[in-house]
Design brief:
With 188 residues, the chain is an all-alpha fold. It has six helices and no strands.
């Protein structure tokens, strides 16, 4: 009986290193698999970042070529003058039509017996404010950002990341420090 127990214990102790090696190999394989998955994910994210960067650079080059094309003088002064005035003229026309519609709506609302406060709230809603901000920001916001760029660069370096978002005001065309090329025909 003792010899049987000794034989069983001998067999079991001979298997212990093999079982331990099996668990160790299983843990090593799981670690290697996880490491490979992380490396694959990092490679995918790196490629995605490279693709985003390439797309951004292509957009910038396209924008610069469009502005360069539209900004080149034709050699005829009257053609250059018309080319320079087209966008501001269209903006003025649309802006004046918009003011006319707003005034007509206020007049109509007040003539129908509504209070001026109710009419003003209905006419000057969030969508109207957004359109107005977009137009004014397009023509004047870029100049303000380019003049404030030294301060923006200082703020970008000295401001902690948690408070940078608080510096960007809603409704602005772009965050401070963003480089936006001047449209052709605009004055700086």
């Amino acid at each position: 009986m003792i010899s049987l127990i000794t034989a069983i214990l001998g067999a079991l102790t001979g298997m212990v290193p093999g079982v331990l090696q099996l668990f160790t190999q299983k843990a090593n394989n799981a670690y290697q698999l996880q490491l490979q998955q992380l490396q694959l994910q990092a490679a995918k994210e790196g490629k995605a970042l490279e693709i985003d960067l390439a797309n951004s650079q292509a957009d910038i080059q396209q924008q610069q070529s469009l502005y360069r094309f539209a900004g080149d003088p034709s050699g005829l002064r009257w053609v250059d003058a018309i080319n320079t005035l087209v966008r501001p003229y269209i903006t003025l026309i649309v802006f004046h039509v918009w003011i006319g519609v707003e005034v007509a709506l206020v007049y109509y609302g007040v003539s129908k017996g509504h209070t001026l406060g109710d009419v003003a709230g209905a006419v000057w809603d969030e969508n109207t404010q957004a359109i107005f901000s977009a137009i004014v920001g397009f023509w004047f916001g870029n100049r303000m950002l380019t003049r404030a760029s030294p301060m923006a660069a200082t703020l970008a370096v000295t401001t902690p990341p948690a408070t940078k978002a608080a510096l960007i005001k809603p409704g602005t065309a772009a965050p401070a420090g963003t480089i936006i090329p001047e449209p052709p025909g605009s004055r700086t």
